[in-house]
Amino acid sequence: MYKYFFKRIIDVILSLIAILILSPLFIPVMIILLMTGENYIFYSQKRIGYKNKTFFILKFATMVKNSPNIGTGLHTKKSDPRILPFGRFLR
Predict the structure, then answer these.
(1) Fewer CB within 10 Å: C terminus or N terminus of the chain?
(2) Cα–Cα distances in Å, from 10 out to 3, 6, 14, 56?
């Protein structure tokens, strides 16, 4: 039990350190996505994790807002028209 507790503590601490180090890069990316995209920065997606527990993941919005209902649906192609110009760079 303690093994998992300490692993979780280390994961959280390392994640916070990574966010602090990368935050100077995140701010310009957010501003560029606001200016070139559809006025939203993050995309929230439901995922299934450990022991089938669902959680939400936040990702930078690299595609148009209604992309699953446009074109090829959930699958992306190499030159997919649904990908935003700056989103292509991020991908």
Answers:
(1) N
(2) 11, 6, 6, 21
CA distance linking residue 42 with residue 25, whole number of Å: 15
Length of the chain, in residues: 91
Please name the helix (run of DSSP H) or strand (run of DSSP E) that holds residue 57, with its range, or none: strand 54-60
- pLDDT given at position 44: 86
Start-to-end CA distance of the chain, whole Å, equals 38
Does residue 5 sit in helix, strand or coil?
helix
> Which residue type occupies 44?
S
Task: Tell me how far apart the alpha carbons of residues 32 and 87 are, in angstroms, rounded to a whole number.
Answer: 10
Which tokens is 76 given? 């992306």
pTM (global) more than 0.70: no
Q: Would you say 61 and 45 are in contact if contact means Cβ atoms under 8 Å apart? A: no
